[in-house]
Amino acid sequence: MTGKNKKNYNENYINYVRSFDPPTQHFKNCFRAFLVGGLICCIGQFFRIFLENVFGLEGTELAGATSVCLIFLGTLLTGFGVYDRIGKNAGAGSIVPITGFANSVASPAIEFKTEGMVYGLAAKMFIVAGPIIVFGVLAGTLVGIIYLLL
Q1: 78 closest CA partner among 103, 44, 114
Q2: What is the Cα–Cα distance from 120 to 110, expressed in whole angstroms?
Q3: What is the CA radius of gyration of the chain?
Q4: Nearest to 100 by CA among 117, 120, 83, 112
């Protein structure tokens, strides 16, 4: 095949594959992500107000307790299979908040639990979240060093 024939063949194949793909609805996807991400943040704000008024928590205790509640909720919904359905419809709106991080830790743990506690659950738990943790710690350290030097 010559270069020109190969190029036409590739373009024809790409056009053929695209004919089977449904058109992407960018506005609809962004709107769903915005709504779900906002709803998750509203639930977090509800937890914050509840913990502040009922238990009298303040400052870092309040922030920590709110984070724990959201992580628990994300993990619970992942365990029941609800978070996966939310993710299919919401896209990035379900990934960005702290509940998305809980989902990224819990999903592989649930998926690989049949391989045992060590090789399955413990080894695969951070397969998705591991790079996030590593680069988050490195970025935080780098920012801290820069802040210290300024």
Answers
A1: 103
A2: 9
A3: 22
A4: 83
Taking only the tens place, the pLDDT of each residue in 62-78 is: 999 999 999 999 999 99
Q: Which residues of 13-39 are buried (b: 16+ CB within 10 A; e: fewer)?
A: eeeeeeeeeeeeeeeeeeebbeebbee
Q: Say whether pLDDT at 113 is over 80.
A: no
Average pLDDT of the chain? Answer: 86
> Is residue 2 classed exposed, middle or buried when 0-12, 13-18 and 19+ CB atoms within 10 A define those classes?
exposed
Q: Return the closest-CA partner of residue 95 out of 43, 53, 33, 47.
A: 33
Burial of 101 per CB tally in 10 Å (0-12, 13-18, 19+): buried
DSSP 8-state class, residue 25: -
